[in-house]
Amino acid sequence: MRGLSLLLTVILLAGLLPAGRGLAFDTSSTNFVNGRYYNALIPDGDYIAKDSMSVADIQNFLASKGSYLASAPPSVLGEGNLGRSAAQIIWDAAHGKYDAAGYFNGIDINESTGTISPRVILVTLQKEQSLVTNPSPSQRALDCAMGYEGGNGCQWMFDNKPHWKGFANQVEWASWQLRYNYEIAGRDVGWWNQYYPWSYPYYYYQGNTLSFADSTGVYSVTFSNQATAALYRYTPYVFNGNYNFWKHIVDWFGIVANPGSSGGSFNDTSTVNTATYRGSFTISGAKQSENRAYFEGQLIADLGTGTWSVTFEPTVGRRDYRVEYKDASGAVVATKLITIDRRKVGDVNGDGRVDLLDVSHMSDAWGQTVKDDASINLNPEVDNVVDLLDISLLANSFEG
Fold first, then answer.
1. Is 311 helix (H, G, I), strand (E, B) or coil?
2. At what angle do helices 86-94 and 55-64 cross, to 10 degrees?
3. Distance between CA 54 and CA 335 in Å, rounded?
4. Which residues pair with 369 in a beta bridge?
5. How far apart are CA 107 and CA 302, in angstroms?
6. CB–CB of 46/119 below 8 Å?
7. Which of 237, 245, 336 is nearest to 284 (CA)?
8. Res 71: pLDDT
């Protein structure tokens, strides 16, 4: 009876809880590579949208992620904090205040121009030191919050550039740098030859193509816009730095840049095998421009394009879906297999029922942060924590 009473209470609470956001874009590393999203990390307008969040918005976002920054006292935020909260520091930096303003090489950044979006600052804090989701970061992580250390490491910065040290200084200096990078990404080769001849051929301007090598391979990146060039100048790696930036800006804020037709060198035939509670599913890939792409018989990308994307509603149960690539004559030249186990909301163990056995599985992970869309996380669009919201969703589907 106790279990039934608890379940009834949870069912009542379920109606009081907010609905989840819409489907997040597929941010797997496979989609990042196959869709050539490394060429377009974020649209320019979203990158410099200084008014995209208020101080209250930033504070609420930090609190929703369980971030230490939501309650961090000014005493741990370094010199230059001026008694401000982390949210206020982020907002001020986005608006070009204090050390986020400066003039260099003919580029003037100030309060009238602002620097970058608070969203970009938040994602960079996460990319560099996991400060948005960490409930108890070290002082060292706070002191090197934005990874602004001249490419020489945090300890070098502490020893040689102490005016960069500390959360407030890091956020302000890095915000200035990221806006400066954006502005110079709009300059031509002549400007780069004048001011940065020693960095040739690594000129970070829109339209240029550079190669980046890491442990996962070598990537030829064409900067589709100024924002993408700016981010690569700040972090000259595809994985994991710029992939992590892209993943978080998409997952958290739903911001997706169009990579254009920069794909087209191959047909993506990598297999996808996943379980999900999502009502709809989005997946993208690359294709050869001389082929068409069809999803379940429906044309999704025509001749002359280098990428494709499709959003669909998987049926409950495990099912295979296919993307077929056809040449101009209609002959199939390649196929991509997509296997999705669409589970009924609340069916944690995948047996097709929602019952006490599912509750017992969830209890083992109660309060834990789990992988996005893990089989025990019933609300992947909202958070990655197994908590009361998950139980409420299960209660709505409970079968006994």
1. strand
2. 130
3. 47
4. 385
5. 43
6. yes
7. 336
8. 97
CB 151 within 8 A of CB 233: no
Q: Of 231, 189, 184, which is closest to residue 208 (Cα–Cα)?
A: 189
Collect all residues with Cβ–Cβ distance below 8 Å to 327 and sequence separation of at least 6: 290, 291, 292, 333
Using the CB atoms, write b or e for 190-205: b if 16+ within 10 Å: eebeeeeeeeeeebbb
Task: Look up the CATH number of domain 272-342.
Answer: 2.60.40.10
Q: Which of 186, 220, 178 is nearest to 206 (CA)?
A: 186
**Nearest of 155, 147, 203 to residue 178 by alpha carbon:** 147
Q: How many helices (H) and strands (E) does the chain have?
A: 14, 11
Cβ neighbours of 289 (radius 10 Å) = 15
- Assigned token pair, 236: 């000259």
d(CA 301, CA 325): 9
pLDDT in tens, 49-72: 999 999 999 999 999 999 999 999
Which residues make Cβ contacts (< 8 Å) with residue 209, sequence separation at least 6? 220, 221, 222, 223
Helix (H) / strand (E) containing 251: helix 243-253
Report yes or no: 90 and 96 within 8 Å, Cβ to Cβ: no
Low-confidence ranges of the chain (pLDDT < 70): 1-25, 215, 260-266, 270-271, 284-285, 345-350, 352, 354, 358, 360-365, 367-386, 390, 393-394, 397-400
H or E element that contains 160: helix 154-160
Domain limits, the chain? 25-263, 272-342, 356-396
Instruction: Report the distance separating Cα 267 and Cα 249, nearest Å.
Output: 27
Q: Which amino acid, residue 314?
A: P
Adjacent-strand bridge partners of 319? 340
Eight-state DSSP code of residue 199: G
Longest Cα–Cα distance in the chain: 78
* Six-digit token string for 61: 């976002």
Residue 104 parent element (H or E): strand 102-104
pTM exceeding 0.85: no
The answer to whether 280 and 253 are in contact (CB under 8 A) is no
